[in-house]
Amino acid sequence: MERHRYSYGDDPSQWGELFLPETAATQGVVVVIHGGYWRSQYGAELGEPLAKDLAAHGMAAWNLEYRRAGNGGGWPQTFSDVLAGIDKLGDISGDHGIGLERVVALGHSAGGHLAVWAAGRSRLAELGAPDADRQLLRRNDDGAVHLTGVVSQSGLLNLAEAERLNLSNGAVSNLLGGSSEKYPKRHKYADPMSAVPLRIPVYAVHGTDDDTVPVSQSDSYAAAAKSAGAPVQLLKVPGDHFALIDPKTAAYRKCRELVQTLLG
What we know:
With 264 residues, the protein is of the alpha/beta class. The protein has helices spanning 48-56, 77-87, 89-92, 110-119, 121-127, 159-164, 171-176, 184-190, 216-227, 250-263; strands spanning 2-7, 15-20, 28-33, 60-64, 102-108, 149-153, 202-207, 232-237. Helix content is 33%, strand content 18%.
């Protein structure tokens, strides 16, 4: 297995690591986006075991780091970093013989939120960037690398509900710099619910014993997306919040199978 680290910006958290299988060049890549309620104490080390496992099963994996709330992230840096990190694949894929016909995101918890949010990037212009944060919209150009599918692992897919429930002691307000009362446009722009329906397939996978992110986060998103005609599937698997990112569990193996399906 080969691994190559690249920066996509000047900040110490603006990097990704590409894990390559020992087999020949692949026609797609998996973007691994870690969780941790968008807080700086959780980093890309959470995604590394997944990226290694994906590469061991013949897939190229891009383990993405980004600025989080507490180390220069939050609004809008976390969001612009995720788009820039995905777009970096356009610069490096040719060096490793990786096609970008299929670019699938595998995101856990807050990373599931960011993955589904990034998949809606073509819809962001319709919403209009709030608070004059136009750097987000500047990435919606022809040179962008667009996701072709997402596997969300216990993702935070309904930010309005997550704020109402005060999940992880105000994590949503912490990410967005204040409450939805103070920044309503910002909250709407950041919420995957606002971009329903997506045109690409989304698998919303959730652990039945998850007490960190309630299953209602996947339930409500999938219900809204389905009713709008989106190709979304909700899957509930045995295990807690972290079973989904443990390569030894059946819950994770199901996620890997879904990624393989999306890569074709």
